[in-house]
Design brief:
Structural class: alpha/beta
CATH topology: Arginase, Chain A
Order of helices and strands: EHEHEHEHEHEHHEHEH
Number of domains: 1
Shape: globular
Number of strands: 8
CATH superfamily: Ureohydrolase domain
Distance between the termini: 44 Å
Radius of gyration: 18 Å
Strand order of the largest sheet: 2-1-3-8-7-4-5-6
CATH class: Alpha Beta
Helix content: 25-40%
Low-confidence stretches: none
């Protein structure tokens, strides 16, 4: 029986005495709505791993996105530990397992990198940072996700930023890529603004550049980046449940990631809402894999800066 694929062929652990700079893990299910089906999203982590295999032998090659090799000439420091065992509709159990794994990774002084899953999985992921605050959140998404509840569920995919705003260790948030219409009503917009969230539309990024969002992130802040795939334009990310024209480009997304790494520090990253059943020729999985490469490269470089 063939061993399961890992992202870029990364090992599940490093040699004794070597600490990882980042730990990848998948989480297929979070808090699924009553009568809902999150099984399509549970395919995302392995779709991304599969898309990365073509580049698995190129880790030491020059990457023009990063301006160097993935680990900038240093030893490999990222592992892929596979998926957390989650069960659809075991909402409380799934949240507990995601939070626990996040805490385990942070205890290693590594950056947790989670592959979802729908947009409910960031709630326990962010909760796992409660002993590692204060943190800022950079959300890349078409929607603000501020519903207090939907269908009686307060921890579903329409509520992650509302729940994050209630976490004492969250110091602030920047929400970028917003456009079109979603579950948010005027009351949710007012709640987000009253909290102090910085709402940055995709149009603002197109006209002003990524600085439209980066200017709100304090210098030196500890930042968790949560990336909903529908924050990107469906021309490069068609594999989402709600395709919305006018999203961020691939270059804008990686420039945001690199910008955070330069002026602050990425301490966590999650990628959610990739829906492989809607993908076209694997394009979305490939784009997601390349985004993850940029995240890992940025983490490796900021880790080296902190040691210099």
């Amino acid at each position: 029986m063939a061993a399961p694929l890992s992202f870029l062929g990364f090992p599940s652990r490093l040699a004794d005495g070597i600490s990882p700079c980042a730990v990848i893990f998948g989480s297929g299910h979070g808090s699924t709505y009553p009568g809902g089906d999150s099984s399509g999203y549970a395919l995302a982590a392995d779709a991304i791993r599969t898309a990365s295999q073509e580049d698995a032998g190129l880790v030491e090659h020059w990457d023009f996105d990063l301006g160097g090799t993935l680990f900038d000439g240093k030893p490999l420091c990222c592992v892929d530990t596979g998926d957390i065992p989650t069960t659809m509709h075991d909402n409380a159990g799934n949240r507990g397992r995601i939070e626990a794994r996040t805490r385990e990774v942070l205890a290693l002084q590594a950056v947790p990198v989670m592959l979802g899953g729908d947009d409910s999985v960031p709630i326990p992921f962010l909760a796992g940072f409660s002993d590692h605050g204060p943190i800022w959140i950079l959300q890349i998404d078409a929607h603000i996700d501020w519903r207090d509840e939907l269908h009686g569920e307060r921890y579903g995919y329409s509520s992650p930023m509302r729940r994050a705003s209630e976490m004492p260790h969250v110091a602030g948030m920047v929400q970028v890529g917003l456009r079109s219409v979603g579950s948010a009503r005027l009351t949710e917009i007012e709640a987000a603004r009253q909290y102090g969230s910085h709402l940055v539309t995709a149009r603002e990024v197109h006209t002003q550049g990524v600085e439209a969002a980066l200017r709100y992130i304090p210098e030196g802040a500890r930042v968790v980046v949560t990336l909903d795939c529908d924050g990107l334009d469906p021309g490069i990310m068609p594999g989402v449940a709600a395709r919305t024209p006018g999203g961020l480009t691939y270059t804008q997304a990686i420039d945001l990631i690199a910008g955070v790494g330069r002026q602050a520090k990425i301490v966590g990253f999650d990628l959610v809402e990739l829906f492989p059943p809607a993908d076209l020729d694997g394009l979305s999985a490939l784009t997601a894999a390349r985004l993850l490469v940029n995240v890992i490269g940025t983490i490796a470089r900021q880790d080296q800066r902190s040691q210099s």
